[in-house]
Structure formats: structure tokens, C-alpha cells
């Protein structure tokens, strides 16, 4: 079972942090069109995790996705890390996002992905909050060490049920592979851009489950500049040391020039479905339950 997903946030990030440059919106719109056309050509449905603020400020983006028959999920309201939030703040953020998305989407929003996969052992209470807000499916758990997120003690490699304080969600974790004894993601974002296509394809084709995830920025081959210390600290809410900014610069730029072609090959050679479709195919009474 292979799932494909996209995190839709760039329009809001551009407006909030970068001055709402019209040429960037044109670029984002063009890339979204390429993605939607490719998925239609391959008869592939995906889940698009969108910010609530996208629905508020750029509703046409949500409408274009929905009109092509894809699932719209929630990617928070304002793209804040859950590790920086309290349960009360997360509850407010999620409810506002769902309401805004549903107003444009016209359907219930029940799938969720945390920005930066920021649900981990220290804030597992987020599972309870999301369930209380009407979320049924989650794709936030990144079972490896990761900047700003990661749940390295999480051992399930395939869809499962996660429970916290009596509240349960259907979990679709990010998939990993072992390299030199360490769990490393391979199927999305900078990892997908970094690893050879042949390795990614082979790993997916020999696995029982894979979750691919992409951002609009993955497909922009114009080099991004290194953030200033101030820009980094405003966006990431942590110290803008040079090494942190350098790592982010490298991760943001590596492999972007060939990413769309790699994704094109992947959806041509492997079958993918959305979270909603996967949910309908899985016998949830037979999967493992993880109490966290």
C-alpha cells in the first residue's frame, strides 16, 4: 500500500514572512497545476494537507485541489510547531483550521499532519486534542530522529491505531529504512530529493507500506538564499546559529532541480492512493494498537 501526500503552506508563508511577492504566487500556482495535471494523467488521488489560513487567504488553492477529486486534510492553521504549543493553543488552532478548510472544501476534514511532523513522545497529548477536534486519521508521526519533530521510540512501520488517554486515531506513519543502523526517512521532502531514485523506487516496491510526502518548494529549482539570523529565529523560533542556518540552506536546496521528474517516474512506476482510500481498505480491527 503506497500513499502520496502534499503539504500545502507556501502561499501563507510567503504572505507572512516574505512580503507577498506576486511572482512567487504565480510560481506556486504553476507548480500546483503541474502536480494536479500529473496526478490526473496517472489516475492517482492524493491527500493534500493544507493550512487553514490557505483556505482563508487563498481559497482558490483549496478549490482547485478539491475540484480534481483529491482529499483535503488539515496541516494546522498557521503552521506552528506543535512542540511550541499548549493543548489549549492546539485545540484552538485545529478547530479554526478545520472550520476554514471545510467552508471551502465542502466536506468534512478528518485527516491531519502536524507541521514538521511535530508530534513526539513529549507532546503525545496532541493525539487526544486532535481526536477531540474531530480528526480521525493522522500522518504526523516520524519514527526517527528529526529536526523540530521526530518520534524515535515509535516502532510501528505500517498503519496502526494510536491511543492517548483513551482517545484513538488511525495513524499513517512516515516510512523509514535502516542505514548504518539508523532509521532514516527516504520517501519525501529533502530525503526523497537526496537519495538516488533507484533506491527510493526499490525500497517502495519491496515494502508493504510507503508514505510519500512533498511540498511545493521541493519542486522549485531556483536556489533559496541562506536565511539571516533574524529570519531564522522568527520562523523557526530557535537560535539562528550559523550551523543551523547552513543545514537548513543545504536541506532546502539539495535535489530540487530533479525532484519533479523523480516524482513523475515514481507515480508512473508505482501505484499510489490517498489516506481516505487507504482508510477504506484497511481492516482496522486487525492492526496493532499503540498506547503512547
TrEMBL record:
InterPro entries: DUF3473 (IPR022560), Glyco_hydro/deAcase_b/a-brl (IPR011330), NODB_dom (IPR002509), PuuE_HpPgdA-like (IPR045235). Signal peptide: none annotated. Residues 16-292 form the NodB homology domain. CDD domains: CE4_PuuE_HpPgdA_like_2. This is Polysaccharide deacetylase family protein. It comes from Parabacteroides segnis.
